[in-house]
Amino acid sequence: MPKTVLIIDDDAPTRGLLRAVVIRAGLEALVASNGSEAIDIINTHDDLGCIVLDLMMPVIDGSAVIDHLSSSGRNVPVIVCTAVGPRLTPEFDRAIVRAVIQKPFDVEQLAAMLKAFSA
């Protein structure tokens, strides 16, 4: 049974592209358009293999989602996918955030990461 990847991004076209990459990588996809929706999914799904997370979102931002994962003890690898430049991207707990990729991202590189982190 394929692992599930949670995609969290407020931009609908980006969510669609990320969903296509996840499916092409042979994985299942769940989507959330903000951190609040994402936290609800995280709290109710034990089958998450990986999370692809945008940082700048309305309602609850990506950093708060990472804080929730840390405080809840959920050990789900996170790939931060952001338009924020490398110098403005905060440092994250590398036990949770396994990679930070910049938008626009390389589709093949992301697919490879998803397969590796969801294994």
Question: Brief overview, please?
Answer:
The protein is α/β, with parallel strands linked by helices.
Using brief descriptors, characterize the structure shown:
single chain; 119 residues; alpha/beta; Rossmann fold
**First-residue to last-residue Cα separation:** 11 Å
* Known CATH architecture: 3-Layer(aba) Sandwich
Mean pLDDT: 92
CATH topology: Rossmann fold
Instruction: Categorize the overall geometry.
Output: globular
Protein model, in words:
There is one protein chain. The protein is an alpha/beta fold and 119 residues long. The protein has a single domain (4-118), classed as 3-Layer(aba) Sandwich (Rossmann fold). Helices cover 39% and strands 23% of the residues. The chain contains 4 helices and 5 strands, in the order βαβαβαββα. It has helices at residues 12-24, 35-44, 62-72, 107-118, and strands at 4-8, 28-32, 48-53, 78-82, 97-102. A 5-stranded parallel sheet has the order 2-1-3-4-5, sandwiched between helices. Helix 2 runs parallel beside helix 3. 31% of the residues are buried. The model has no long low-confidence stretch (mean pLDDT 92).
SSE arrangement:
Elements: E1 4-8, H1 12-24, E2 28-32, H2 35-44, E3 48-53, H3 62-72, E4 78-82, E5 97-102, H4 107-118
Parallel strand pairs: 1-2, 1-3, 3-4, 4-5
Helix pairs in contact: 2-3
